[in-house]
Automatic annotation (TrEMBL):
Ranges for domain MOSC: 19-168
SUPFAM superfamilies per record: PK beta-barrel domain-like
Taxonomic superkingdom: Bacteria
InterPro entries: MoCF_Sase_C, MOSC_domain, Pyrv_Knase-like_insert_dom_sf
GO molecular function: catalytic activity; molybdenum ion binding; pyridoxal phosphate binding
Record-given protein name: MOSC domain-containing protein
Amino acid sequence: MNSIVTAVARSAAHSFSKPVVPAIMLLAGLGVEGDAHLGVTVKHRSRVKADPTQPNLRQVHLIHGELHDELQLAGFNVAEGTMGENITTRGIDLLGLPRGARLHLGESAVVEITGLRNPCAQLDNYQQGLTAAVLGRHPDGSLMRRAGVMGIVIEGGEVRAGDSVRVALPALPHLPLERV
């Protein structure tokens, strides 16, 4: 299966879900044009409260559509954009990528993966039990976060459903994703 973008979403408000739109424009060093998380420094309210000068490593939120499938089978009402992601993909193991992997989206956009989304209480506010459903345990017992990955925009460009996704891995050694 080819890796593709299946949906794109944005919201100017700090809301949990983001409405799906035909296309989004990624702006280098900033994020998604018209999205509440656009900027060089952190925009997530809890992070701003802690230190508003932190670099924004969470400019773009990506979720693999296969997670939606799994959650729907478990009885959750989720779809593209409902968990706050900007880009939904299929055919790519986002959670298995190393830190620094670059996703080439469509004709010109490039997003560098910075880490894992840390599932928060907003998931349970949306639908009870959703936080637990996106958490798990690795074989060594450590916490597994499965609510998507975060990234920064390296090269801007338009991204829309149907665009291809190509992965460029960083030089070895590959570093595992951690929460950002």
